[in-house]
Amino acid sequence: MNIVISGMGIIGGSMAKAIKKYTDNYVYGINRSPLPLKKALECGAIDEIGNSDTLEKADMLVLCTYPEASVRFVEENADKINKSCVVIDTCGIKSGICQRLSQLADEYGFTFVGFHPMAGKEKNGFDVSEADLFSGANAIIVPCDAPHSAVDKVASLVKKLRFGNVVFASPEEHDRMIAYTSQIPHVLACAYVFSPNCVKHKGFSGGSYRDVSRVANINASLWSELFIENKEPLVNEIDTLINNLNKIKDEIKKGDREELAKVLHQGKVIKEALGE
């Protein structure tokens, strides 16, 4: 296939490197600034620097930018996208973007399939991209009523790129689960490091501190967009977390060790039941 990747950050760069390492597809790169494209071309992550005209010969277009930027790119170039092209996004929320890109697909004749690679790092940009970033990672495919042939094409590429578990979901199910598995940990980490004791942690911290605080090293511009786009599911998860924290806090304040132990044991039981 001719694959066009729009956005040469960590996800776009890693997609390009993985495609070149594990498949025989021809890869074009498109990016707002030229430096990442130059680096991608020099290291062999892409075969050629593309432009909007390249979309006319694309078999697949992979959108690796922020949600609004991804939609805007398709809006501005929809009339140039090959009618047989499968367009996929890599955004962390799906309800809004799936609706808008599915409408554009219907209007202009191409096909859209939602895709979310569950992988990343605390650092961003092409320089930290790697071909094996997705190795063993979960991949979520959101079909959005696309034909089975298009969904199968995406699933086939995902498996070649060494993803682990492949899950299919509706946009609503995706966003509800991502609020819990991905977004709430980032909220928690940021709230955690707001403590005045955070700046004094050296010499007092270990693995627990690192585990909880790790994702506070956040791309604030991206995650603020994702949080607001997924407002209702995320707020529900925050309310649930606050209620559970209050439950533990109340038992601590009462000084009832037996009841506190029961509450804490519930967490252990849940984790053990999951086999994790």
Topology readout:
Elements: E1 2-6, H1 10-22, E2 26-30, H2 34-43, E3 48-49, E4 60-63, H3 67-77, E5 86-89, H4 95-108, E6 111-118, E7 138-142, H5 148-160, E8 166-168, H6 171-193, H7 207-213, H8 220-229, H9 231-254, H10 257-273
Parallel strand pairs: 1-2, 1-4, 2-3, 4-5, 5-6, 7-8
Antiparallel strand pairs: 6-7
Helix pairs in contact: 3-4, 6-9, 9-10
Give an overview in words.
The chain has 276 residues and is α/β, with parallel strands linked by helices. Helix content is 51%, strand content 13%. The protein is built from ten helices and eight strands. Strands 3-2-1-4-5-6-7-8 form an eight-stranded mixed β-sheet, with helices on both faces. Helix 1 links the parallel strand 1 and strand 2. Helix 6 packs across helix 9.
Summarize the structure.
The protein is of the alpha/beta class. Helices cover 51% and strands 13% of the residues. It folds into 2 domains: 2-169, Rossmann fold (3-Layer(aba) Sandwich); 174-273, 6-phosphogluconate dehydrogenase C-terminal fold (Orthogonal Bundle), CATH 1.10.3660.10.
Number of E-type strands: 8
Q: Name the CATH superfamily classification of the largest domain.
A: NAD(P)-binding Rossmann-like Domain
What's the rounded overall pLDDT mean?
Answer: 96
Task: Report helical residue fraction.
Answer: 40-55%
Spatial strand arrangement across the major sheet = 3-2-1-4-5-6-7-8
- The gyration radius over C-alpha positions equals 21 Å
CATH fold descriptor of the largest domain: Rossmann fold
> Would you tell me the structural class of the helices and strands?
alpha/beta
State the helix count: 10
CATH 2nd-level architecture of the largest domain = 3-Layer(aba) Sandwich
How many strands, what sense, and barrel or not for the largest sheet?
8 strands, mixed
